[in-house]
Design a protein that fits this description.
Blueprint lengths: L2 H10 L7 E3 L5 H9 L5 E2 L2 H7 L10 H14 L4 E4 L8 H13 L4 E5 L11 H17 L5 E5 L16 H14 L3 E3 L6 H10 L4 E4 L7 H7 L3 E3 L3 H18 L3
Helix pairs in contact: 2-4, 4-5, 5-6, 6-7
Keywords: Lyase
GO molecular function, one term: lyase activity
InterPro entries: ICL/PEPM, Pyrv/PenolPyrv_kinase-like_dom, Pyrv_kinase-like_dom_sf
Length: 256
């Protein structure tokens, strides 16, 4: 498939009630393994890609290295690739769009783009984030590329007390509306775990909803019934693999 065809296929895979499952990867090797396991598409996780290259999360990994990682994954697997692009490595809309273009040039057909203030506090105002999304969409449209912009809100991740998540729903609804109008393709709400709230967001959002698996999220079958269109695993696969590697190494270096 061409890059445009991959982007179109990726969008088609987002089905309410029949969610796209993304077991997040971090390099070409993990991409090959997940592809061979039967995945329909690939997505990186920012935390995992950074950790695999010796960096912390929060755009610490250089953009140039992230782009190379995307290219290596793209040439290793024929599947559509979405790249977790955090805050776009810039604040101003035009700069963000230019950075996204670099990732597209290296094979990405989609991005995660979050509203948290990287290196700061809280999340960007709705109008600010919408302007950033709009600039990305306008750039992609000029290139005739149906880039899948998965607009992520960090409202729920930044509130560790899930009992307060109900109070954040109205803000999330407003963000979903504004981001959709600006040209987003999906709405990502990591940290949201309560079934009732997940179902409410899926019912209300004009965009396909993406939920990240956490220890307290419902199982995938339940999330499908709630209307989720995309389920991702975030850093969990990387942590699992690295935990196994460390355990096996310790059995050699520190035998009991």
């Amino acid at each position: 498939m061409s890059q445009v065809e991959k982007a179109q296929e990726f969008a088609r895979l987002h089905k309410k009630g029949e969610p796209l499952i993304l077991f997040n990867i971090w390099d070409a090797g993990s991409a090959k393994a997940v592809t061979e396991a039967g995945a329909k598409a690939l997505a990186t996780g920012s935390w995992s890609v950074a950790a695999a290259n010796g960096f912390g999360d929060g755009q610490a990994i250089p953009l140039s290295l992230l782009a190379v990682t995307a290219r290596l994954i793209s040439v290793t697997s024929p599947l559509p690739l979405s790249v977790d692009f955090e805050g776009g490595y810039a604040v101003e809309p035009e700069e963000v769009a230019a950075n996204v273009e670099k990732i597209m040039d290296h094979g990405a057909i989609g991005i995660n783009f979050e509203d948290q203030v990287i290196g700061g506090q809280g999340v960007h105002p709705i109008e600010t984030q919408a302007a950033r999304i709009r600039a990305i969409r306008e750039m992609a449209d000029r290139r005739e590329m149906p880039l899948f912009i998965n607009a992520r809100t960090d409202l729920f991740l930044q509130e560790s007390d899930t009992a307060h998540h109900q109070l954040l729903l109205d803000d999330a609804f407003q963000r979903a509306d504004a981001f959709a109008e600006a040209g987003a393709s999906g709405f990502f709400a990591p940290g949201l775990v309560e079934p009732e709230l997940i179902g409410a967001l899926c019912e209300r959002s004009p965009l396909p909803v993406n939920i990240m698996v956490r220890p307290t999220t419902p199982d995938n079958e339940t999330m499908a019934k709630l209307g989720v269109s995309r389920i991702s695993y975030g850093p969990a696969p990387y942590r699992s693999v690295m935990g196994m590697l460390k355990s096996e190494a310790e059995a050699i270096y520190r035998p009991t």
